[in-house]
Amino acid sequence: MLTNIPSSTLKQLVRLCERKEALMAQIQEIDREMIRVQNKFGIPSREGGQREPVTVSRAPGGLVRRRSKRGALKEKILRTLRSAGKKGATVSELSKNLKVPSANLYVWFNGTGRSVPGIKKVGVAKYQLR
Fold first, then answer.
1. How far is Cα 19 from Cα 121, in angstroms, rounded to an integer?
2. Is 44 exposed, middle or buried (CB count within 10 Å of its CB: 0-12, 13-18, 19+)?
3. What are the respective helix, strand and coil percentages of the chain, to the nearest 5?
4. In the predicted structure, residue 23 carries a pLDDT above the cut 90
5. What does 36-67 look like in DSSP terms, one character per residue?
6. Is the dihedral of CA 3, 64, 95, 105 positive or negative?
7. pLDDT class for 42, splitting at 50, 70, 90?
8. Where residue 102 falls among pLDDT bands split at 50, 70, 90?
């Protein structure tokens, strides 16, 4: 993964990271100085309490996705098709009910769904469980 990056680029990234850490340290020092001045003159901070120091995060935080157990989607699909009865259910209905992207369901029916006994295609993007 990192074998294709030239050493000059890596050195540049290291310099930028060091520069960023130095700037973050300066920001923390300014925050501490502001708190000292506020405390000296009795000025309440905007949050009501003392501010936390600025910290450097290693990676941006984002949405954490949890993987389902193996076969969980299959069980959900079979349960929904069983409850739909003879009329069956369309991929869009399944998508709404299961809160799964319709593209995932199209792929599932095209691959795994073919090998599941009892699932029958009865129309355009419509399936039923026999």
1. 60
2. exposed
3. 55, 10, 35
4. yes
5. HHHHHHTPPPTTSSPPPPP---SS---PPP-P
6. positive
7. confident
8. very high
Structure pTM?
Answer: 0.49
Q: Give me the residue label for tokens 């506020």.
A: 38
How far, in Å, are 23, 39, 90, 108, 118 from residue 127 at the CA level? 59, 69, 6, 12, 10
C-beta of residue 91 within 8 angstroms of C-beta of residue 125: yes
Angle between helices 72-84 and 102-110 (to 10 degrees): 90
Angle in degrees, CA 98, 100, 106, rounded to 5: 110
Q: Which tokens sit at 30?
A: 């300014």
CA distance 30 to 112: 59
Of the given ranges (32-41, 55-64, 72-81, 85-94), which has the lowest mean pLDDT? Answer: 55-64
Please choose, from the candidates 123, 77, 116, the residue with its C-alpha nearest in 3D space to the C-alpha of residue 100: 77
Distance of CA 99 to the CA centre of its chain: 15
